[in-house]
Amino acid sequence: MMSYLSSLVWCFLILVVSVATVRIHGQPSTEDFISIDCGLADGHSYVDELTKIPYTSDAQFIEAGTNYNISRDYLSSSLPEHQRSLRSFPTGERNCYALKSLVQGQKYLLRATFMYGNYDGQNSAREDKPIQFDLHIGVNLWKSMKIVDASTVTPTEAITVALADYISVCLINKQSGTPFISSLELRPLKTSIYPAANASISLVLLKRFNMGPTDGLIRYPDDGHDRIWKPFDYSSALKEISTNLTVHSHPDDLFEAPSAVLQTALTPVNGLVLRLGWDPKREDILPECHIIMQFAEIQSLGPNDSRTFDIYLNGDPFFDTYLPIYQISDSVYTTVPYTEYEYNISLKATKNSTLPPIINGLEIYKAMHLPELSTDSRDVDAIMAIQMEYPVQKNWAGDPCVPRAYAWEGLNCSYIVSVPPRIKTLNLSSSRLSGAISSSFSKLKAIETLDLSYNNLTGTIPGFLADISSLQLLNLRGNQLTGPVPADLLRKSEEGSLILRIDGPNPCINESTCGTACNNNNKKKITTPIIMIISIGVVVLLVVVLIVWITRRRQQDFAMDSSVRRPCEDRTERNVDCKDHQLKLESRQFTYKDLENITNKFVRIIGQGGFGIVYHGFLENGVQVAVKLCSQSSSQGTKEFLAEAQSLTRVHHKNLVTFVGYCKDENYLALIYDYMSQGSLRDHLRGKADLGRILSWGERLQIAVEAAQGTITPTSSMRRVMFIALGWFFWS
Question: In what order do the strands lie in the sheet with 659-665?
Answer without folding.
Answer: 588-590, 659-665, 668-674, 624-630, 612-618, 605-608
